[in-house]
Amino acid sequence: MRSVIDIKDLSTQEIEQIITVAEDIIKNPDKYAHKCSGKKLATLFFEPSTRTRLSFEAAMYELGGNVLSMSDAGSSSASKGESVADTAKVISCYADIIAMRHPKEGAPLVAATNASVPVINAGDGGHNHPTQTLADLLTIHREKGHFDNLTVGLCGDLKFGRTVHSLINALSRYKGINFVLISPEELKIPSYVKNEIKKCGLEYVQTKDLLEYMPKLDILYMTRVQKERFFNEEDYLRLKDSYILTPEKLATAKSDLCIMHPLPRVNEISVAVDKDPRACYFKQVLNGKFMRMALMLKLLGLED
Ligand code: NCD
Question: What pTM value is reported for the model?
Answer without folding.
Answer: 0.96
